């Protein structure tokens, strides 16, 4: 079995140390990061290299304890001070959390009456993910009478998210490799669709992408490819994501895919147009092109992440159209991460920073006409705006 | 656009009516089922046919309101009394829940002092999923002062789970079609690996499965195929799930896949052995074969779902071995659903019922030797035990 690279080891050690320091500052005893079925969190991989299915406890004291479902995978890939197989805790999240915290010196109980005001509660504080269910919260509070169980936002997850929002050199390098493979595939796919008759099918295109990505050294795809021929491109995310239906036939076909390198994904969408479009379809294409340009023109370090989405909304609403999804989102270890580029809610608070990597993906969809989406990946640095990928709207006579 | 079939419409209407009746019995006003990114629930599809990304509110009065992310997909596939686009609520779960409940007659507030004992609280009760986060629970309680927000287990989700545990005729028919395609693929894959030299790769095998499944009318795969050649079969779930590494080369290769038909998945694992094994490897294979037989022999309507897992543990522990995962799990709309076949915890409470469909999948893994797993799907009916699939351990000289 191999072991994690020096570079990954250093990065994980640094991230764990920064998080421990933050826990100390905040007066916390420990925090819990977990990734299991139906409860995924790539912060696990970011912090310790283990790609999936494990519990990680970071102590303010600086120690990290990993409890992996697959001990063999952890021995090969994970960076942690201590690795304990999940089977040692009967493969129970609850038993693992209690066990690790007790073995880390969390008192079993504290004498005297318990305070009801959290601020003056003398017990050590242990922070759990914001997604922790109400029922688990009650359960953990009962299981850990010696601790103050905390679920709050902002909290340590916001600390991690802020760090993950701004990519470091290793992360940008992986993203650039993913983008380079993506660009080769964009060219290849254009060529294949141009050269094909009406016989090409959605699944063939999806399989070419995956095969060619792996052949070029990708770890895999970032997400399930969405390949929708003219009969299905009206769906934002077609269901199923590809089928035996024709692709690249006359009309509007959408192809949305991402390539993952060392965990970091690209995310692009091509629209492939074959033959003459109706005037209404031409109008959709033109609006998406205008929206794309308006969005790219509004990217600026220090500006609100709402700005480009507002520009796009202006373009669409002036034409009586509405986009049924966000304009874009951060990419990285997660396919969808911060920042979110949308007109409403959360994004009003976030600001473009140097080191952010995100998508721009305006689109319009009509059950009669089909869909058009155009998506590329952007890296913001002090040197400016870099469009990393070269997906495009392709016209085939 | 097409519309849901008569058969699916009748099934969804019946399921919604049964749930409404149950809500009435329990004195609940409504319950909420949702499926969004990071919060998936195939109970959405089971109740209304919408495969993904929507909020469904079922009222005790009998009414169902669906709020889909993709309105076009819902118009084609969903069965509900009312369908309202998510964009009408600014694509916010919180606004959608509040909006739908208010429009359904939930009072905005109730006069007089609020009771602290839930049992005597006069407000209408609205039930949310057990996975509802502690933070969302607090938020909803504030947003809906006129309601008593409930998150409890057992609750309506247990009611749904119990119904989903026992498959009806339409569900069994879909599962049988998935199994039939799976069996054709098992034969095909054995033939391909037998006929291949050392040049076959994991991704080729994975792509053949998907292509051939779709060509035979499958909706897609049940989950990402796990294809691990001899260098990686030691992992329970190899990461990534397939790569450019050799498959079917000398030693132990594992192939775990499922085929989905109308939402219902199969789930099988073949182990492919090429060439002479070491004595230690032979011992692993033999133990897994013994465990498989012991498990199948312990299947009996009315018996505890722990029984087969206990029989397998006896086989393995007598040989000083331990299986790092459960013996099996229910399959259906979810790849992993009830019942769980394991020696510990929850499963101690569940009992084999007529109409259950689940896997049996003993396995052993060693970082030096590789892995062996053998998995098939079982249908229990009053007529007896039916092994639906024919995956096997294949020996190639």
Total helical segments of chain A? 10
- The quaternary state of the protein chains shown equals homodimer
Tell the overall outline of chain A.
Answer: elongated
Alpha-carbon Rg of chain A, integer = 24 Å
Order of helices and strands of chain A: HEHEEHEHEHEHHHEEEEEEHHEEEEEEEE
Overall pLDDT score of chain A: 94
Low-confidence stretches of chain A: none
The largest sheet of chain A is: 6 strands, mixed
Helix content of chain A: 25-40%
Please give the alpha-carbon distance between the first and last residues of chain A.
Answer: 53 Å
Number of strands of chain A: 20
In which order are the strands of the major sheet of chain A placed? Answer: 4-3-2-1-5-6
Structural class of chain A: alpha+beta
Beta-strand percentage range of chain A: 15-25%
Identify the most extensive interface between protein chains. Answer: A-B, 56 and 56 residues
Report on this model:
The structure is a homodimer of 397-residue chains. The first copy, chain A, is an alpha+beta fold. Chain A contains ten helices and 20 strands. Chain A has helices at 6-26, 43-48, 71-77, 93-103, 134-143, 156-165, 169-195, 202-215, 279-297, 307-318, and strands at 30-35, 54-59, 64-68, 82-83, 125-127, 148-150, 220-221, 226-228, 251-257, 259-261, 264-265, 268-274, 328-330, 337-341, 357-360, 363-366, 370-373, 376-381, 384-387, 393-396. In chain A, strands 4-3-2-1-5-6 form a six-stranded mixed β-sheet. Chains A and B meet through helix 3, helix 5 and helix 8 of A and helix 3, helix 5 and helix 8 of B.
